[in-house]
């Protein structure tokens, strides 16, 4: 039988009261939106006034879409956008979501650490940079971890909680509960190239491309095999088209450096990227895409 205490903990997932987001682009705006809907106050900090205004526009557009679906919106003053990391002073959690550039992220994390309370949790939304490499330059690596959100954040159901060598277990527990509090499943993954999702997803995608190269089956039949045979919601080639062939190639090259030949990108992937066929965003990848 469940004890009353356990039941209470499970029934009342705690939302951080104040959340900071550095970088209010595609992912940062989505992360802000998710915590706002869960009842947190969210401060988005951008690099200049123009991008701060754009970030506000993105979050407000996402909130308007939620309202149209009948979701109750937070108070208007629950969201602030600015260019001042001083806004993070009271934050329980700050998520770094600036572009995927190691030097940029190191600078961003130093700015965040300089602004937050000692007990705040700091997270990076990096999709490929090692959490330990980022933690190496931090003063409080025990308060730092990866929170790998998926794109688009409102429609995604998963966040990878990526633990560095120094991340405190209590920080992992807290972050996991916060992820659950915004209605997403959390999986805890040790810091390793590609975490869990990209490594497995890219492995399947690369093998599907090799099968296409070898003439084993058509793109449609390879995808249908996984969709109908294994109940994947979408086959690996269609998924690659939607993610972007260039994005997948970049991840494969990185995984090849870490794990060797099993992640060597197939020539067909390189050729399509070189020809500018990047998938849905350019109208052609393994499939033809129209509006
Ligand atoms: N887009 C995806 O599919 C996806 C999925 C998972 C994780 N990620 C990761 O999320 C992070 C952000 O990606 P994105 O797609 O949202 O990028 P994006 O380019 O849409 O947004 C980045 C934002 O950061 C801002 N920015 C740049 N420098 C800044 C600075 N010094 N201080 C404050 N803000 C700054 C930019 O103005 C921009 O609004 C990256 O690490 C990326 O790898 C992306």
TrEMBL record:
<dbReference type="InterPro" id="IPR022694">
    <property type="entry name" value="3-OHacyl-CoA_DH"/>
</dbReference>
<dbReference type="GO" id="GO:0016616">
    <property type="term" value="F:oxidoreductase activity, acting on the CH-OH group of donors, NAD or NADP as acceptor"/>
</dbReference>
<dbReference type="InterPro" id="IPR008927">
    <property type="entry name" value="6-PGluconate_DH-like_C_sf"/>
</dbReference>
<feature type="site" description="Important for catalytic activity">
    <location>
        <position position="148"/>
    </location>
</feature>
<dbReference type="GO" id="GO:0006631">
    <property type="term" value="P:fatty acid metabolic process"/>
</dbReference>
<dbReference type="GO" id="GO:0070403">
    <property type="term" value="F:NAD+ binding"/>
</dbReference>
<dbReference type="Pfam" id="PF02737">
    <property type="entry name" value="3HCDH_N"/>
</dbReference>
<comment type="pathway">
    <text>Lipid metabolism; butanoate metabolism.</text>
</comment>
<protein>
    <submittedName>
        <fullName>3-hydroxybutyryl-CoA dehydrogenase</fullName>
    </submittedName>
</protein>
<keyword id="KW-0560">Oxidoreductase</keyword>
<feature type="domain" description="3-hydroxyacyl-CoA dehydrogenase C-terminal">
    <location>
        <begin position="194"/>
        <end position="289"/>
    </location>
</feature>
<dbReference type="Pfam" id="PF00725">
    <property type="entry name" value="3HCDH"/>
</dbReference>
<dbReference type="InterPro" id="IPR006108">
    <property type="entry name" value="3HC_DH_C"/>
</dbReference>
<dbReference type="InterPro" id="IPR036291">
    <property type="entry name" value="NAD(P)-bd_dom_sf"/>
</dbReference>
<dbReference type="InterPro" id="IPR006176">
    <property type="entry name" value="3-OHacyl-CoA_DH_NAD-bd"/>
</dbReference>
<comment type="similarity">
    <text>Belongs to the 3-hydroxyacyl-CoA dehydrogenase family.</text>
</comment>
<dbReference type="InterPro" id="IPR013328">
    <property type="entry name" value="6PGD_dom2"/>
</dbReference>
<feature type="domain" description="3-hydroxyacyl-CoA dehydrogenase NAD binding">
    <location>
        <begin position="19"/>
        <end position="191"/>
    </location>
</feature>
């Amino acid at each position: 039988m469940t004890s009353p205490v356990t039941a209470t903990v499970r029934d009342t997932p705690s939302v951080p009261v104040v959340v900071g987001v550095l970088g209010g682009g595609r992912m940062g705006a989505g992360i802000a939106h998710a915590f706002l809907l869960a009842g947190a106050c969210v401060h988005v900090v951008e690099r200049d006034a123009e991008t701060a205004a754009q970030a506000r526009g993105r979050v407000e557009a996402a909130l308007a879409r939620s309202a149209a679906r009948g979701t109750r919106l937070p108070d208007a003053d629950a969201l602030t956008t600015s260019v001042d990391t001083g806004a993070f002073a009271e934050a329980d959690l700050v998520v770094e979501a600036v572009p995927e550039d190691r030097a940029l992220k190191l600078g961003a994390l130093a700015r965040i650490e300089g602004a937050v309370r000692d007990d705040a949790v700091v997270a990076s939304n990096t999709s490929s940079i090692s959490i330990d490499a980022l933690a190496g330059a931090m003063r409080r690596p025990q308060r730092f971890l990866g929170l790998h959100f998926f794109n688009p954040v409102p429609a995604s159901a998963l966040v990878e909680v990526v633990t560095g060598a120094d991340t405190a277990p209590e920080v992992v527990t807290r972050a996991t509960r916060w992820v659950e509090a915004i209605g997403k499943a959390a999986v805890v993954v040790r810091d390793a190239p590609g975490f869990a999702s990209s490594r497995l997803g890219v492995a399947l995608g690369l093998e599907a491309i090799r099968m296409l190269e070898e003439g084993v089956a058509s793109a449609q039949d390879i995808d249908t095999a996984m969709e109908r045979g294994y109940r994947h919601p979408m086959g690996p080639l269609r998924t690659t088209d939607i993610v972007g062939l260039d994005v997948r190639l970049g991840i494969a090259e990185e995984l090849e450096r870490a794990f060797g030949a099993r992640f060597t990108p197939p020539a067909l992937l390189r050729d399509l990227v070189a020809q500018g066929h990047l998938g849905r965003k350019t109208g052609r990848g393994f499939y033809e895409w129209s509006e």
